[in-house]
Specification:
55% of the residues lie in helices and 8% in strands. By secondary structure, the chain is α+β, with helices and mostly antiparallel strands. Strand 3 and strand 4 form a beta hairpin.
């Protein structure tokens, strides 16, 4: 079996550390017990033609294993789970439900969370940012209420911990410590259960240890304007 290679950043702002999406790939690889190597990119290198050849949108992570190259964290997580037979039920219907929750996390729950991050961080100086926040927060509140209602008193969404739970925990923890997530104790406890897994701790430690690079030119000035360094 070959040793896969993933791409990750060698530096991100403090608020992004522990949140970059290579964490999700590291996590599933740790769950699978699969060693991997990391190709670290400095900020800006992800936009070069050589990286875009494997990730057309100029982002991380990517995953390379022999002749196979993948991008998109959800696709990578699903591939690793299938290849190694981990975090996926053997029953076809249960496997489909686990995959369903992976897509629900990415396609339904994460978009309003990312809208919140864009408004609060990346577009915070734009005139439309603050007026937009109440609408974004309302969408997050609705989604959190829905996923909390479906979880109910279950430990995980469908039987044992699966790739659906891995991705849902990864998405929900973006809002960890916020009032929006704190309003749903069942979701807080759910995230706590997921992040208590040893594989998550190993993945997080590995990601944090990789941030050894330098910020791009102009970052200090940008951060000072918003006091978010």
């Amino acid at each position: 079996m070959t040793r896969p290679v993933i791409t990750a950043f060698d530096w991100v702002p403090d608020f992004a550390q522990g949140q970059v999406r290579d964490l999700r790939v590291r996590w599933i690889l740790e769950e699978a017990g699969q060693p991997y190597d990391v190709e670290y990119l400095s900020q800006g290198a992800q936009k070069r033609a050589d990286h875009r050849a494997r990730q057309p949108f100029g982002q991380v992570p990517t995953y390379q294993d022999g002749d196979l190259t993948l991008f998109e964290s959800g696709a990578i997580v699903l591939h690793v789970a299938e290849r190694h037979g981990v975090l996926l039920p053997t029953d076809p219907a249960a496997k489909s439900r686990a995959t369903e929750w992976l897509f629900a996390a990415l396609n339904t729950v994460e978009p309003p969370i990312m809208d919140h991050a864009i408004a609060m961080l990346f577009e915070r100086d734009e005139p439309w940012s603050k007026p937009r926040l109440p609408v974004v927060d309302a969408r997050i509140t609705e989604r959190f209420g829905e996923v909390a209602a479906r979880l109910g008193g279950r430990t995980w969404y469908d039987g044992d911990f699966s790739i659906g739970d891995l991705m849902m925990v990864a998405v929900l923890r973006i809002m960890e410590g916020s009032e929006l997530l704190g309003a749903h104790p069942t979701l807080v406890a759910y995230v706590d259960r997921g992040t208590a897994r040893p594989a998550f701790h190993r993945a997080l430690a590995a990601q944090l240890a990789g941030f050894t690079g330098e910020p791009p030119v102009g970052y200090a000035e940008w951060a000072a304007k918003g006091d978010c360094a």
